[in-house]
Structure formats: C-alpha cells, structure tokens
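Example record

The entry below shows one chain as it appears in the dataset: sequence first, then structure tokens.
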Amino acid sequence: MRYILLSFLCFAFLSQIEAQPLRGQTTAKQKLETAEAQLAKKDYYQALEWFEKYYKEERDLAVAKQIADLHFMLRDYAKATRWYKRVVERKSRKKPNPFLPELRYVYGRTLKMNGNYPDAIEELTLYISESEDPVNIARAKREIEGARLAQSMQPDMEVSLVNAGKKVNTKSSEYSPLLASKDEMYFTAMREDKIKELGSRDNDYHSKLFLSKRGEEGWEEAMEAGGVNINREGYHTGNISFSRDGQRMYFTRATLEGNALMESKLYYSDKGDEGWAPANEVPGINGDYIIRQPAAGELFGNEVIYFVSNMDGGYGGYDLYYATRQGDGFASPVNLGDVVNTDMDDESPYFVDGTLYFSSEGHPGIGGFDIFKSEWNGSVWSAPMNMGKPYNSMVDDLYYSIDKDGYSGTLVSNREGGKSLKGKTCCTDIWELSKEEVVLDLQALTFADGKPLNGASVQLVEMTNNTMGMTNDKTSEASHIFGFPLKSEMAYMVIGSKEGFVADTLQFNTVGITTTTSFEQKLNLTFIPPPPPEPEEPEYEEYTTNEPIELGNIFYDFDDDKILTEAEADLSYLAELMNKYPDMIIELSSHTDSQGLSGYNKKLSQRRATSAKNWLVNRGGISTDRIQDVGYGETQIRNQCTNGVKCEDDEHRYNRRTEFKIVAGPTSIQIEKKRLKKN
C-alpha cells in the first residue's frame, strides 16, 4: 500500500492509495461499489477518484454531490465550487432537484471561500428565501455578513505577513507554531514533499514536533524536537504549549482511522536536567472525547489551560474550554460560553495579556476559518472581533500567536503563496507576521451629500516646498474607503474625484509624529447633474398608394394564426396611422414561403391576415370596411426560392411576411422610421 501524506486543518489527514481495487475493465456498478467501500474506510482520496470515474459514465446527480462534498472536505475549494454549481444548476423535467434548496447554503460558502463575494451573497440570499431550516438560515445570514465585511474591509497597513520559507514549510501541512523566542520556533508537521510508500524502509508517516532556529538568512532546517519521550512511535504528536514558568510542556497524541480523527488526548512532560521526561496524560481533563490544541494561560488570576474539544454539552462542533491547574492535574473543564463559542467549529486558542485569540467558522468571517480576538475584563469575555486583513484570507487561517510586545508572531494558512501537496489549498503553511513600531497611514473616505460614495478615485500626492512629487492613485468600485501608507516628516495633498462630480482636495502632514498614527481625511464630492437630453427628432419614410409596407414584427407560431404579444406593437402603430388618416383604406396581406402545399399555404395566409384584421377591428377600433384582408400564400415570392429550389431558412424567411398598402384615401403617408423596424 502507498500513502499520500497530507496534513490538514487541525491534524494529519492521510489519503491511502491501495493497489488498484479492481483490475481490467470494470462496470459502472463496480466503480460505484469501490468508491463507497473506500469512503467507508475513510479513504477519501481513493473514494473521490472512483466516484469521479463512475460519474463520467452515469452522470448521477447524487454522486456529483458526493464528489463536491469530498472536494470541500479535502479543502479543494475551487473544485468543490465547480461541482456544487453543477449539482445546484441541474434541471430535470421529470423530478425536482432533491438537494435544493439546502445545497445552496454549502455552494454559497464555497463561493465565498473562492473570493467570489457577490455571487456568494446572491446564492445565500436565494437560499434564505427558499429554506425552512432555521439553523442554516441563521448561518447563511452570518456568511452574508462576512462576505459584505470582506468587500468593505481594508488591510491593516501596520502588518507585514511573509511565508516562513522552504526550510520550515513543505508541501504537506505545518501547524501549531509556537515562538519560544524570536529565534526559536516549535511546530508540528510530517515534513513531506512527495508521496511516501508504506512497506518501504521508511515506514513513519506520523506528525511530529519540530524545532527551527533563526540564522542570518532566516529560519534554518527544522529538526525533530523533544526526543523519544515526546514524539512517540505510532502516534501523531502536536499542538505544543508551555506552562508560564517554561518547565512543563503540554501537547497532544492522536490516532487516525483512515482520514478520521479517532482519539486525541492531552499529555504533559516536565523538563529535567537531561531534557524532557517521559510524558503522562494530564489528569482531570481527558475523557471519552477529543481534546486538541492546548494553550497555557491565565484566568481569575489562576494558571489555566485552554483547549478545543467536542465533549458533550457544547454549542456545536468543536468548542473552546479551559481548566484550572491544581498541582499536577486540572479541575474539570469549563466551556468558555456562547459569547466565544458558536454552533460551528471554534479552534486554536492562544492567550496573552488578557486577550484570547482563536479561529472560528461560526462568527462572521471573510473566509472559512477566520482569526478573532476576545478580551477578558475580569468577569466576562468581550464580543469576538474579526482581526481583519491580512491576518485573515478567503480560505482558512488558524493558530495565531503574538509576542507580548505585539510586534511579531505567527499564524497558519492555506492562502495563496503557500505550498500544497494536493491542489492549491489542501495544505497549510506557517506565516510570520510583524508590525512596525511606528506606522503612519491614511484612511481617505469619499462622500457625496453626506453619504459614502463608491466608485471614486483618490490620489495621494507628496508635497515638497509646495511642489507636487510622488503620487499614489487608487480606485475602488466596491468601497469608499482608501488606505495609504505614509512617510514621516512629509506634507501631503489628497484629491478625491469621480466622473460626474466636482473633485475635493485636502492637505495634511506627518511632521513631528513619533507614534503609530492613522489619519482620516473625508473628501466631499459634489454631484454635477447631467444636462437634459435633447429631444430626439423622429425620422420618417414616405409611402404612396399601392406600395407594400412590411410589418416587421408580425410572427406566428407554427401552423397557427394567433396574434402573438410581440406583434401587438406593430398592429397598434398601424391603428394609429389609420386614425391619423381617417379616409385611408388598406389591403392587409399575409404571405408564406414556397415550402409545403400551395393550397394549404393559401388558406393559412388568409387565416393569418384575417386574424390581424380582427385585432385591428376589436382592439384598435378600426371600421371593418376600411380593411381588406388577403392571404396570398406563396404566390408572391420575393427571391429565387420558388417551388423545387433549395434554399436556406434565412432565404425562405424573407418571403414569410405581413404587409399592408393604401388602396384608397391619401395618395401618400408618412411613417415613423423606427416604429416598424424589426426588433
């Protein structure tokens, strides 16, 4: 057997590829049975491959949904979006789509996680109007709120985010980084860039704890950390955290069945003269549930450990808990409550200086998992605040940590710019973040009549001795807020403009500013009303007695003489003309092409001419004796397409027409040119 080693969101997910389950030619039924068998073994990549082979033959809608679900589970959001769209838009005359409207919710989420916020909002809004599920309706409203937040959100100009580099990150996932100092980083990974084969000499496919040190050229090659007492054979080890005195290490050991996390418990190891001692389960916390992602911290003045669990009594999915340390053990776990926790997954806690950072897919976010922070005031947690861009992206962002000074830290993300073993977003990299100690920026806001004005342009101009220098121009169709980095000791001019508005100009400077400062400048543009349009002079054509005048939009259904809706405009105008020229008598005629029997065409054209006459009499109020209805059939062919001549349909269509001509009354009339032209 061979394994594709992929480490994912919170732990290592394995994709087992066996020797082909079926040899030679296989039936569609066998492919489906193989896919379902692999799915039952939680071998999602094998299941996905066989489901796709089956779908190529059978185009089964339920299988298409299963394929979409697997792509979403395996975090290939681009493919998931395409497959969900295929399922959502499938139509059948025989039976309704059984996956609607509920699948629209998942489809909307994948659109959002591909950065397609307008379509995501549209799909989720449609879902809300069609669904009767109150839980998912509430979730869809949160997703819409997050998508709108993403459209209006400007990145934090103080923050720089860079990939930790190839000596730390591989194509498989790295996660739960922890800076022991500015120059030492622990993290969990498998350290794989390619498929590994079980049965070979290297039989180890478990995640381990690693340590990388910073050198002159950045992070150096990562090495296993903690020794055999920490990285235990046969277990996935990760999620490291240290007690506040640094003498105790907390971490988890987990086992998987296929791609499913079956067990994960919390362990600790104390530091001695010879390194880390053999690990023990943490007393008082572990139970018949999953525990992940420990993070040492404080609460009520006591040393506590925060962690993630799916134990009974939570709000849904994984929740955040804490437990208070009591000697070598801990008191019973306590849920952090519904201010922090949601009905979806809440993950990767990190506590520093009274602030809890965590990731959630249940609070309004701009992607999948977003990073949030909540502050402890001594008795309650504050409402979680989205950390915004660039901390968060349109995909998954977790394991945020920051030093006490607040200037450097790490997070884990599968955003663009990372490395992935399977697809573009399967696997997470470690990213380093840093803040400048003094950052100056401008938030320029465009308004008109006191209301935000989108679609404007803002130009920031450096001014030296009242002379214009370097410029920075930005335009936004989706927002009225424009962010610009600023230089120290510099004078600026900011100009807001938009077509159809009078521009606004402001001036300010950063002279003497020694602390991080964000300037806000409001630009008020004045709307210029457009000049009234000049009246359009109608153009006329003149027609004389017995000159055929074609009605361009008189059509009929096949073998039918009923007047269609699109024909009524022409007939209404003909009625206007006859009222304008009250002594005018017309011949109203209908013509066919040469296809079909001549006698039949003659009768059909007569019925159609009579139908048009009846409309003018009954709807237009025209006297019946002023209209002579005549059906000419195929007797007046206008081109070469007579009986027996092979012609294209466009050539035949030239002969299918309805006309009128003046037979008595005025010798000429004027007709407004555009009124009888074909639409």
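Notes for this example: The radius of gyration is 36 Å. Residues 598-618 form the longest helix (21 residues).
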